[in-house]
Amino acid sequence: MSSYENLAGAYDELTVDVQYRKRADWLIRQFRKSRIPVHSVLDLGCGTGTIACLLAARGYEVVAADASEEMLTAAAQKASVLEKAPLFLHQQMQHLRLLEPVDAAVSTLDALNYLTRPKNVQETFRRVYRALAPGGEFLFDVNSPYKLRRMDGQTWLDEKEDVFCVWRTDFSEKTKVCTYWVDLFEQEKNGSWRRSCEEHRERAWETEELTAWLQEAGFAKIRVTGDLTERAPRTDEDRLIFRCRKEH
Could you tell me how many helices (H) and strands (E) the chain has, helices first? Predict the structure, then answer.
């Protein structure tokens, strides 16, 4: 079963502890430092659209792309209350195609880790570069290799009133991939429980790899920091943020 086919409906309920507004505010502060005025933004791997909607509500023209139809359905429902909703596109990252350039591009909450082949990451960077206006910046985060290795052999639970989720993880040093097996239990209206299972895979990408591929795609001014900070990453950093610019 594909990632998020069943989890999409419960995703927001299970991620209430994610500080989306704080992350959106941080992105907006970066936009205000951009070399060019930022009016239009690409949200790559937008999921259920929370970041895209927060940016749209702040007046940005947002194009949001994701590979999951189910996640995009949830995103469109969320955006229906906005005066100016994001434009949602059903596209894989490595197949990104926009009709017009954007002033900035973002990808949040380890969406890039879901690309497990080098050629797909490289093609994604090339396509984001082409999608940006000259002077535009690309900001994205990834789960660090440290975090994904630390998750090996872990099991944890997410429990809400009508949703129960069990996550089991395995990290392979050979493939550098962390596999999540997700058992989702959702309560039906008649009181019974429905079980579904999904498999998610995230690749641990080294900073040096991603930096080299960004440079190959044409990006400059590449900077890596800890999550939502201006400092260099610690060795035990769970999430890394990359910032880079299309100069010309």
Answer: 7, 11
